[in-house]
Amino acid sequence: MMNQSPVETALSRAMIRWSLTKSTPVADTPRSWIFRVEQNGRNFGALKILKPVVAEEEGRGARLLQWYEGDGAATVFDIHGDTIFMEWLDGGPLADPVRAGRDDESTIAIATVVANLHRPRAGAPDDLQPLRTRFQTLFDTDVRAWPHTARDLYARSSGIALKLFDRPSAQLPLHGDLHHDNILSSDRGWLAIDPKGLLGDPAYDVANIFINPKNADNIAADPRRIAARADILSQRLNFSRKRMLGWAAAHAALSACWDLADGNPITGLLACLPNLLSAYDQA
């Protein structure tokens, strides 16, 4: 054990703890190391070893995932320290059918997942992050960080966010990062992964859908797609269309603030935001 890296040590300990027989590295992301593992040569599982820099946020998400008990989400078998032992999902993401032109079908699938995640359950984790805290970056961002031509979009979106926070709503445990690439196909249907673990307005949980999937801005920014997505989600989940589109615009602006802070382009978000704001105005 002497010369092992921290991830090798965590992996060795996990293999012993859960009687796993074989591990294959799958991904090394900024947030975690992921391995596919075998139990007794028959069943596959996933080990997710969190990186220290995000362990608090990711740990919160993992405990929420565990709380879902596999209902609309990947099943977490056990958590020990910063290592999560969970169900292996080898199906593709919900982004694939969207890019293949089946956006309505995908939005219906999202509504089903959200309904399952939001089902009443006892004993929610007590360390969920308030949605208002999550949005602090939006309110703290200097408008001059935004391109000159887009500053009115920032002002309008942050105004909508403040209005949403001022109007009371139900407070539910939220996935907090639900988008097409965080919903995977499985033999149990479509299942969510990688929640953030928030607490707030249930309608926020579909906000991220409206700026996704990645590399499909032509779909997300299309006013007809925005309207069709809003129709399906509001009908199936009984969310206020106005509130849902307000959160979608606010979240798009928040995402842009995060991207600007990281030095990433916001072209795709700026393609979506004016159309989300106009859909909000018309709702």
What does this entry look like structurally?
With 283 residues, this protein is an alpha+beta fold. The protein folds into two domains: 6-87, Phosphorylase Kinase, domain 1 (2-Layer Sandwich); 95-282, Alpha-Beta Complex (Aminoglycoside 3'-phosphotransferase, Chain: A, domain 2). The protein is built from eleven helices and ten strands. It has a five-stranded antiparallel sheet, with helices on both faces. Helix 10 (241-261) runs antiparallel to helix 11. The radius of gyration is 19 Å and the shape is globular. The termini are far apart.
Features:
10 strands; 45% helix; Phosphorylase Kinase, domain 1; 283 residues; 3-stranded mixed sheet; Aminoglycoside 3'-phosphotransferase, Chain: A, domain 2; alpha+beta; globular; 18% strand; 2 domains; 5-stranded antiparallel sheet
Shape, per Cα inertia axes: globular
Which strands sit side by side, in order, in the main sheet? 1-2-3-5-4
**Which percent band covers the strand fraction?**
15-25%
- Summarize the biggest pleated sheet: 5 strands, antiparallel
Assign the CATH architecture of the largest domain: Alpha-Beta Complex
CATH superfamily of the largest domain, please? Aminoglycoside phosphotransferase (APH), C-terminal lobe
Helical stretch tally: 11
Average the pLDDT over all residues and give the rounded result.
Answer: 95
Number of domains: 2
Structural class: alpha+beta
Number of strands: 10
Order of helices and strands: HEEEHEEHHEHHHEEEEHHHH
Q: What separation lies between the terminal Cα atoms?
A: 61 Å
